[in-house]
Design brief:
The structure is a single chain. This protein is an all-alpha fold and 472 residues long. Among the domains are: 135 residues; 52 residues; 99 residues. Helix content is 69%, strand content 0%. It has 30 helices and no strands. Helix 16 crosses helix 18.
Length: 472
């Protein structure tokens, strides 16, 4: 999947792509045709940088309901000829998830689309999972024949069916089909289930990787084999060292950390850092200076995991470095520094935004640190990250930091956060938004009554309406 093109944050499309609460509020006041066009654009061209963890489906489904939006564009997208050529989940996953939420709200047209796509579409397993949560038994039983027809009856087809049954996210349809009154269907599904269970047992009986009795050298060689195959194994290899290494092996491990192969060096650095070895910090600094890109990354990761006072003190010395180790030092101080480190954390935050923009991965930790340390003068930078980032998770972290640093948050961003796409951000807003704005009271009551809303959000809402809560 290509990286999505995100529109400017001041446009309706940009707001909706980011999942911001202001996107919904602007869409409801915009011309309906314009709002629906922007909404369809988002649903059909997934705007998330990480579609597996960021939430948008409930956010877009609610907007379809508020706009009384038709699903013609979604239908055309799902059943386009491209569906045969591109079976990646990322092409249709968001649209199917939106249909799932709409079906749970009682939209019959969404339910029928899911049924059709489960019977005919490439990403049928996702559609079936959505239906497993929302459809009745009769609707699911009607899909048994078209779904099983996807799998040939030869050995290869039966193996594929067994894998589909074994890996199903929602097992309800398969359980229904295993009890289907049509014996050919029930027998085939039961056989696939048994084959899947047997395959899982066989895999458990054939473990790969280190065995008891391995030496330190064998662990290093295994880690290097992973590097040569393109698989980084130094993290599990370092855990193996904990089991196999003794005090007499320390010289060999130190030597590997200085000049071993890439796999051995990464493994040794991780092991030494996790065990707070007195030479770990010096070896990490050496690795950043002369190691390969893989070694540098492993050294930086190992340093950030350290919890010792010595590591925090070294971070204060390294925070001004203009390299990966300096950036890691800023993140360590954000996580484990004291109030006296506020200037260093703020400097790292500003530098990251200036140098890498509002979507820099390092900002996740630095934003959290600004909130943890209560750095009030970080509020302007946090507000910029909140507005501009395309990551709804990072925006939620910025909102949490603003709640701790910005006195205007409750009357400002907290209000729009009640409509945010991420439930954790809505929960934060439910606890902080000032109720002087009539939209806040109305929205809180709607969230409390919405069966699709997360329990944590509704708990936060109830805390505002409870007998001991301030008057709303």
């Amino acid at each position: 999947m290509f990286d999505p093109v995100i529109a400017p944050s001041g446009t309706l499309l940009g707001l909706l792509q980011r999942g911001r609460g202001d996107g919904t509020l602007h869409a409801l006041t915009a011309p309906r045709a314009e709002a629906l066009a922007a909404l369809n654009h988002c649903v059909l061209r997934d705007p998330r940088h990480d579609w597996q963890v960021e939430n948008r489906s409930l956010y877009y489904a609610r907007l379809y309901l508020d706009l009384n939006g038709e699903l013609d564009a979604v239908e055309a997208h799902l059943f386009d000829c491209e569906d045969v050529l591109d079976d990646e989940e990322s092409r249709t996953g968001l649209a199917l998830a939106v249909l799932g939420h709409l079906a749970s709200y009682g939209r019959r047209d969404a339910l029928e689309l899911l049924r059709r796509y489960a019977a005919q579409g490439s990403n049928w397993a996702w559609a079936l999972d959505e239906l497993a949560l929302r459809d009745d038994d009769a609707g699911l039983r009607a899909l048994a024949a078209p779904v099983l027809a996807r799998f040939a009856t030869d050995a290869e087809g039966e193996a594929e069916l067994a894998a589909a049954v074994r890996d199903a996210f929602e097992p309800r349809p398969w359980r229904l089909w295993a009890e289907d009154p049509r014996e050919p269907i029930a027998a085939r599904v039961r056989a696939a289930h048994e084959a899947g269970c047997f395959d899982r047992w066989q895999r458990q009986m054939r473990p790969t990787g280190p065995r008891p009795g391995w030496s330190v050298r064998a662990v290093f060689e295994w880690a290097q084999q992973g590097v040569e195959r393109g698989a980084a194994l130094h993290v599990p290899a370092a855990r193996c060292l904990v089991a196999v290494a003794g005090p007499e092996d320390r010289p060999e491990i130190l030597q590997a950390a200085r000049s071993g192969t890439e796999g051995a060096r990464c493994t040794a650095l991780r092991y030494l850092a996790d065990s707070n070895d007195p030479d770990a910090l010096a070896l990490i600094e050496e690795a950043v200076a002369d190691g390969s890109a893989l070694v540098v990354e492993a050294a930086v990761d190992a340093f950030e995991r350290m919890r010792s006072i010595a590591a925090v003190e070294r971070a204060r010395r390294w925070a001004q470095r203009p390299d990966a180790l300096g950036a890691a030092a800023g993140r360590m101080l954000a996580c484990r520094g004291a109030a006296k480190d506020s200037d260093l954390v703020l400097g790292a935050l500003r530098e990251a935004v200036r140098g890498e923009g509002p979507d820099a991965p390092t900002l996740w930790t630095l934003v959290d640190g600004a909130g943890r340390l209560g750095i009030a003068c970080a509020a302007p930078v946090l507000r910029h990250v909140y507005r501009e980032t395309a990551s709804s998770h990072l925006r939620g972290r910025a909102a949490r930091a603003l709640a701790a640093t910005d006195p205007s948050f409750a009357a400002g961003f907290a209000v729009e956060c009640l409509w945010d796409c991420e439930e954790t951000t809505r929960e934060l807003a439910a606890r902080h938004a000032e109720t002087g704005d009539t939209r806040v009271v109305e929205r809180l009551r709607r969230l409390a009554a919405d069966p699709a809303e997360e329990d944590e959000v509704q708990t936060a809402v109830r805390s505002r309406f409870g007998p001991d809560a301030p008057a709303v």
